[in-house]
Design goal:
four-stranded antiparallel beta sheet
């Protein structure tokens, strides 16, 4: 019985290994369009784009090329900093945490808006809850943003 069990195990593993696919990895760096080789955070959005937050900008990758978003002197419609700490998507909105505040991306207008100018510290993490509130950590403070009420609370 033991020999039969060993034969079955060997047969099972050899079948699985023989059907394994070869994987191809391509490395992307500054030379291929990435704004900086130090990627601090990444997400894939609902549209299939890959977003990479680096020390020098936010990069959207469509599978072929990068589009880079940086602070451009327009404090109303661009990122306030090029140092991207955290990313999160919820309900079609991409939230971008920089070292100078939290921004949300408007897909239709292809621009960014700061959530609250008073919160201008590093955004360490972003998440959401079942009530669609956005939770984020800035400095040592936990914040909750309610998009329905357009209100920030801190804890």
């Amino acid at each position: 019985m033991r020999k039969f069990f060993l034969f079955l195990c060997f047969s099972f593993f050899s079948i699985n290994f023989s059907n394994a696919q070869d994987y191809y990895f391509k490395h992307f760096q500054v030379e291929e369009g990435l704004s900086n080789n130090t990627v601090l955070t990444s997400i894939q959005d609902n549209d299939g784009f890959m977003w990479f937050g680096t020390k020098d900008g936010l990069n959207r990758f469509d599978g072929y090329r990068f589009k880079t978003y940086r602070s451009n002197g327009d404090p109303i419609h661009s990122l306030g900093s090029n140092y991207i700490q955290s990313l999160h998507e919820h309900n079609g909105t991409i939230w971008v945490g920089t070292d100078k505040g939290l921004y949300h991306y408007d897909k239709k207008l292809d621009n960014f808006t700061i959530l609250n100018e008073a919160i201008n510290d590093r955004i360490n993490d972003i998440n959401h809850d079942q009530k669609d509130n956005i939770w984020f950590v800035s400095g040592n403070i936990l914040y909750k943003y309610s998009p329905k009420k357009e209100r920030n609370d801190h804890f």
